[in-house]
Design brief:
Number of strands of chain B: 7
Distance between the termini of chain B: 16 Å
Oligomer: heterotrimer
Radius of gyration of chain B: 15 Å
Helix content of chain A: over 70%
Strand content of chain B: 15-25%
Largest sheet of chain A: none
Order of helices and strands of chain A: HHEHHHHHHHHH
Strand order of the largest sheet of chain B: 2-1-3-5-7
Helix content of chain B: 25-40%
Largest sheet of chain B: 5 strands, parallel
Order of helices and strands of chain B: HEHEEEHEHEEH
Structural class of chain B: alpha/beta
Number of helices of chain B: 5
Shape of chain A: globular
Number of strands of chain A: 1
Chains: A mainly alpha, B alpha/beta, C mainly alpha
Strand content of chain A: under 5%
Number of helices of chain A: 11
Chain lengths: 286, 148, 637
């Protein structure tokens, strides 16, 4: 058992907890931005425990399995990431997790849930290409999709493909379910289509989804921290910077519709990254 | 106090339903969520979904038009749950008591745990009512845990 | 059992069985077709184990092929004359003249074997004889139901099975042919079968679509003859292996570009996509056979065959452009489609475009990726068509909006179809392995080209995920029910074929490492270095890794964990949240105005009017024509 393996295992186990704390911090910061006090930092954990203890109501026989699948596949992606595997493959695993959530949302004949599921599909359509493009950037620059290629490359990715870093901001805003792109189901204290894709979840199934959310947050922040792989503390700082900016954006912008989300992410994302490529070609980096 | 009960007290999610109120109490409820009173610091979130709510906050008198909705929402809330009625209309029917379509207070339709009188009930009283509801929630929670 | 015998078996046995059915009638089909399927499947596996071989049959067979070809051309002329289709007359007439001149000029070329069965041929033989045979088994049950549905008095199944089996035999001959004339002959036999099968049910629409398939196929035949002419009269050889090993010169590239156009017609790439969409009117086994396992793979096969010869030329990038653009275009148009077979057809065209893209990008990684996609796509698409046919027959509707809540009515078919859909978009299955590799191909390209390729790839792959997931969501919408699922009764032909392909797909995905080593590498090795390392967990290469096994482990944990959760925590199944207006005893209704009870319905998302077939197809066709001209013109560079 090498040190790397041990660290990877610790990281994966700690991820949901770190994600929960970050979510609590998120609520606190949001509250302070709104001249309020806000809940304690451990609030998400109280939420989780309370949800686990609720009388179980489910929408269908398959819902618990699909909710568990959502969490399981995000964890799988995180494990693959922690062991330095293929970025593109990891992104596809994330798609798998999302499809589980969407299938769970469609699994009951509920108007809010079904519409939420459809919106969640469109959300996935909006941010996934940006992540794939980023993975492609990594491959073009380092020569491989494997995470270890980023470590072996030598220069921080932020200095080579800053456009991809900026594009990750959009990804984070969407994934954290923050305005303006929380069309499928918002974070706490907001309502969209009642609870959108989460409407028919309750009790322990919702607890699983919450835990999956925290893990996914850590997952995406970990991906962003690879932009300064040479010093992961700096990388984490970069990730937390985007996270903080997402909270600011959330408090500034109202919710926009899915067409705007799709148009914005695709046009901004493709334009930024392709321009970056052109710059790299001109500067003869690739 | 066991961990589960503590968690339930720390994370009461609210479903707010207007049964036919003039909106005065509803405005006060929303005021309780604003920065001045900031109910969110207690973990209170206005979740719109009964399946995810612990506290049902009802305003307005129960009437023939919406008692089915009220019952449906109450049945879609999982245990442990408490009902807080805000405003005199919800307690007894208030000014609308004895009107043709009015059944009376909300307790004519669903079991109520806490009554917050007032027309309109003030935001501080609503917060007090919720705190009292949390005590009742704790008692229900302890009973639930014992039965397990 | 030597290879020559087995190959001859795979060509002649289906034809013989078809003739037998034509003569004896439908009663023997349920006996001879399964037997034939067993023999074909086994033969292809034995050929795999036997390894490569090549031979030239007795010269009398050359004459047989020539005579049969003339008969075929006469028949095409007759069809053109009868239908007053001038395009068909023109094209088949051109072919007749070209063949006639070729024969009179002492055509035949020198050097090279007539038959070569190498790694690539073996891959195709496996697909044709395994997936193709399973489709024939499916057809046994399907045609009975189909004819009952049409209230046919006299069964037309003998004719149907004759052409279906003839198609199999011709395909087997095609992928083994090294002699360009034999290749062209078998190619046109598949065009014949395609034509006859599409118009099997008769009627104006079927006839029109069959005619379109015919003339597009004939265009391909003319292009092939053009390549044949260049080979014969300029290079004095009509053997593919000899042509491929030559140094590329302008004229040789012209020959290859003509072959590329022929491949585009057969694989329904832009602008030739309309015949495949029109083939939907045919009975489902036809669609399955044409669209997944056999016919369309022929075009891809041809490209895979000659592409090693054109590495580094502009032609290869031109062909790749056609492929990836078709992929993107069809993925977007599929978003607007409401009919199951239309979605499947567009998806097929798109995936073939992706395979062509990979093949034409001409790197070791790309060639391997193309083969992987080919193998897995055939299985997944075959499966999907089979299930779609079963559902269509029972629901009498192709509109996917009517396909809601099928889990209760048709649990087995729904589960198999849903698994089929997930096999197209989720990383546990081989198709995603191919997609992952394809993205790597795009990003590894020379930079300026890469940018265009990457954009189209990402757009296309996002759109494909969306339309598949959209359909998947539709399937899983079900009303709240406590009832235990009761398996529906399916005819043996259906359940056996569906479950067999499903099992094959799952086993192949789990064992993709083994599959790649035994089947794909022998096809890659003669032309490129081996750059993939298949292992137990998945595939790895310098480009990255694709771990399939961990995902299956995660799935197993999820399923077991989910069942345990249900047992430990369980849960009362509650109706949906409908703002408190649920109706007692009716899980999908709510109280609307004046207390009326209304059933909740959700319509699908089809992106009209922004994306409609009518609006987009002309642009796609035009783009396709331009790109094909580019392909033909790039050889001048």
């Amino acid at each position: 058992m090498s040190l790397n393996t041990v660290l990877a295992v610790i990281f994966v186990i700690a991820a949901p907890f770190i994600g929960g704390l970050l979510t609590g911090l998120d609520r606190r910061i949001t509250a302070r931005m709104q001249s309020r006090v806000g809940p304690p930092l451990t609030q998400p954990f109280y939420d989780f425990i309370k949800l686990w203890g609720k009388q179980p109501f489910i929408a269908s026989r398959f819902q618990p399995m699909l909710a568990l699948g959502y969490l399981a596949f995000i964890l799988t992606g995180l494990i693959l990431l922690a062991f330095g595997q293929d970025l593109l493959h990891i992104i596809f695993t994330l798609t798998l997790a999302d499809i589980c959530l969407i299938a769970a949302a469609y699994n009951s004949k509920s108007p809010y849930s079904n519409l939420g599921g459809r919106r969640e599909l469109l959300t996935m359509l909006s941010y996934e290409p940006l992540m794939v493009l980023t993975a492609i950037c990594v491959q073009v620059i380092t020569g491989t999709f494997l995470v270890k290629g980023i470590f072996e490359y030598g220069r921080p990715l932020l200095l080579v493909v800053p456009a991809a870093y900026v594009a990750q901001q959009l990804v984070l805003v969407i994934d954290m379910k923050k305005s303006p792109f929380d069309v499928a189901g918002s974070g706490h204290a907001h309502q969209e289509l009642v609870r959108g894709v989460y409407t028919e979840f309750s009790g322990y199934t919702l607890a699983l989804v919450e835990a999956a959310h925290w893990t996914k947050l850590v997952f995406i922040l970990s991906l962003v921290s690879l932009f300064w792989a040479q010093n992961l503390l700096v990388g984490a700082g970069l990730a937390l910077l985007l996270w903080f900016v997402a909270i600011v954006i959330d408090n500034v912008y109202p919710r926009l519709n899915w067409k705007t989300m799709l148009k914005t992410t695709w046009s901004v994302g493709f334009f930024l990254i392709l321009s970056n490529f052109v710059a790299l070609i001109i500067l003869e980096v690739v | 106090m066991k961990l589960m009960t503590k968690a339930r007290l720390k994370s009461p999610w609210v479903l707010h339903y207007d049964c036919g109120s003039c909106n005065g109490c509803d405005i006060e409820i929303l005021a309780a969520l604003t920065p001045r009173f900031d109910a969110e610091r207690f973990g209170i979130v206005n979740i719109g979904d009964p399946k995810q709510a612990d506290i049902l906050l009802v305003t307005g008198p129960a009437n023939k038009r919406n008692y089915k909705v009220l019952q449906n929402l109450y049945s879609q809330m999982p245990e442990p749950k408490v009902v807080v009625v805000v405003g005199t209309c919800g307690c007894t029917g208030g000014v609308f008591h004895n009107c043709p379509n009015v059944l009376g207070g909300v307790d004519k339709v669903i079991p109520v745990d806490v009554y917050v009188p007032g027309c309109a009930a003030r935001a501080e009283q609503i917060v007090d009512g919720v705190v009292l509801a949390l005590q009742k929630l704790a008692a229900k929670s302890e009973r639930m845990e014992e039965e397990r | 059992m030597n290879g020559e015998f087995l190959l001859a078996l795979t060509v002649i046995l289906p034809v013989f069985t078809g003739l037998l059915i034509l003569i004896s009638g439908k009663s023997i089909t349920k006996i001879v077709v399964p037997l034939m399927a067993l023999v074909l499947g086994t033969s292809s596996i034995l050929i795999l184990r036997g390894g490569e071989f090549s031979y030239s049959p007795d010269p009398v067979f050359q004459s047989v092929v020539m005579i049969l070809d003339i008969v075929l051309l006469v028949y095409f002329l007759f069809v053109g004359f009868k239908e007053e289709n001038y395009l068909v007359l023109l094209l088949s007439g051109t072919q007749a003249l070209m063949v006639g001149y070729f024969e009179l000029a002492g055509g035949g070329g020198h050097g090279g074997s007539v038959i070569i069965v190498d790694g690539l041929s073996t891959v195709l033989l496996l697909i044709i004889n395994i997936v193709g045979s399973i489709v024939c088994l499916y057809a046994l049950s399907y045609m009975d139901e189909h004819e009952e549905h049409l209230h046919l008095e006299r069964s037309r199944q003998p004719r149907f099975f004759f052409f279906l089996l003839l198609l199999l035999g011709a395909m087997n001959g095609l992928v083994a042919s090294n002699n360009l004339f034999w290749l062209y002959f078998f190619w046109e036999v598949t065009t014949l079968c395609c034509f006859e099968l599409i118009r099997h049910d008769g009627g104006e629409i079927a006839e029109a679509n069959a005619d379109r398939a015919l003339w597009m196929g004939l265009v391909g035949g003319v292009a092939l003859l053009g390549a044949l002419y260049i080979g014969n009269f300029h290079f004095h050889t009509i053997s593919m292996d000899v042509l491929i090993s030559k140094q590329p010169s302008h004229l040789l590239l012209v020959a290859f570009s003509l072959m590329a156009v022929a491949a585009f017609t057969k694989s329904a790439q832009l602008p030739f996509q309309s015949w495949l969409l029109g083939a939907m009117v045919a009975p489902t086994p036809v669609s399955a056979q044409l669209h997944s396992s056999t016919m369309v793979n022929v075009g891809v096969f041809l490209i895979l065959r000659f592409v090693p010869a054109i590495g580094g030329t502009y032609l290869t990038y031109g062909i790749a452009l056609v492929g990836v653009f078709t992929f993107m275009f069809t993925a977007i148009v599929a978003l607007s489609q409401r009919f199951s077979k239309a979605i499947l057809a567009y998806s097929t065209i798109g995936n073939l475009g992706l395979i062509i893209f990979c093949a034409a990008m001409n790197t070791p990684h790309a060639y391997t990726a193309a083969l992987i996609l080919l193998v897995f796509h055939s299985m997944s698409k075959g499966l999907l068509f089979l299930c779609a046919g079963v559902i269509e027959n029972r629901l009498h509707s192709r509109n996917i909006e009517d396909w809601e809540g099928l889990l209760e009515r048709l649990p087995l078919t729904t589960v198999v179809m849903v698994t089929g859909i997930t096999s197209m978009i989720l990383p546990m299955f081989g198709v995603l392995l191919g997609k992952w590799a394809a993205v790597g191909v795009a990003s590894s390209a020379p930079m300026l080209i890469a940018m265009a390729m990457i954009t189209m790839m990402v757009v296309g792959s996002s759109a494909t995920t969306l339309f598949w997931a959209k359909w998947l969501g539709n399937f899983t919408i079900l009303p709240i029910t406590e009832n235990r699922l009761k398996l529906e009764k399916l005819p043996l032909g259906f359940s056996f074929s569906m479950l067999l392909i499903l099992a094959l797909d799952v086993v192949a995905s789990l064992g993709s490492g083994f599959l790649i080593q035994t089947v794909v590498f022998p096809a890659v090795a003669p032309h490129y270095d081996i750059v993939w390392s298949p292992g137990l967990l998945g595939i790895s290469s310098q480009l990255g890794s694709f771990m399939i096994l961990p995902l299956w482990v995660a799935i197993a944990i999820t399923i077991v964990g989910g069942m345990m959760l249900m047992r430990v925590k369980g849960g009362e199944i509650k109706p949906a949240y409908m703002s408190g207006e649920n109706v007692e005893g009716n899980p999908i209704a709510f109280r609307s105005t004046a207390d009326s009870v209304v059933d909740y319905r959700i319509a699908g998302m089809f992106f009209d009017p922004e994306v409609t077939e009518n609006r987009w197809n002309p642009w796609g066709t035009m783009a396709g024509i331009l790109m094909n001209l580019l392909v033909l013109g790039l050889v001048m560079v």
